[in-house]
Amino acid sequence: MQLKYKLVAFDGDETLWTLPSGLNLSDRFDNDPIGRPDFTFKKISAPGEAPVVRRDDGALFALRPETFSVVETLRSWGVLIGVISYNHLPNIESILEAFGLRPLVDYVVAEWHTGKDNMMRRMLDMARADGHDIEPKDAVLIDDDYYRLYRDQYRRLGAGFVHFGVDIADFTPILEMVRPSE
């Protein structure tokens, strides 16, 4: 079985989850230059509904409804799952736990800067340290890329990039992009 990608990494804000309150995960206010690294999150949606969590200050975050089925299918094929985000790591870890997604995510790299190519390098190093034979060409980032920075970063890195909201409108097409060939 041959996979096109061995690792699929997702961005957080406006990719894995939407922002009903209009604030990014670590932002205390719109365009917060430093963010806050220690928010807490609680799931408020009912069982069977698409997960919605509330941050301790009231901001809401809604997981895209197809996330679990797509991630579970990718994992069943042996694909590693990552989250790469311009955010504070404790907030990413906390929201993944609140959504119930953390057990399905192999690697998380979240740093307060736009160098997502460097974040992918770190993630690949983590995977190699775990014994995976993986190179940049074996990885893809799914990201809303609001400022249009990441496609060029990933081209230079030699990794795949999918512009969420432009190349795809939900996560289901990722399955066709990654589907194993016999």
Q: What distance separates the N and C termini? A: 5 Å
From the alpha-carbon coordinates, what is the Rg to the nearest angstrom?
Answer: 16 Å
Query: Proportion of β residues?
Result: 15-25%
CATH topology call of the domain at 7-16 and 64-178: Rossmann fold
Helix content: 25-40%
Briefly note the structural class of the backbone: alpha/beta
Strand order of the largest sheet: 7-6-1-8-9
CATH architecture of the domain at 7-16 and 64-178: 3-Layer(aba) Sandwich
CATH class of the domain at 7-16 and 64-178: Alpha Beta
Number of strands: 9
H/E topology pattern: EEEEEHEHEHEHEH
Global outline: globular
Describe the structure.
By secondary structure, the chain is α/β, with parallel strands linked by helices. It has a domain at 7-16 and 64-178: Rossmann fold, CATH 3.40.50.1000. The chain has helices at residues 67-76, 89-99, 116-129, 150-157, 172-178; strands spanning 7-10, 17-18, 41-43, 52-55, 60-63, 80-86, 107-111, 139-143, 160-163. The strands form two sheets. A five-stranded parallel β-sheet has the order 7-6-1-8-9, with helices on both faces. A four-stranded antiparallel β-sheet has the order 2-5-4-3, with helices on one face. The protein is globular. The protein starts with 6 loop residues before the first strand and ends with a helix.
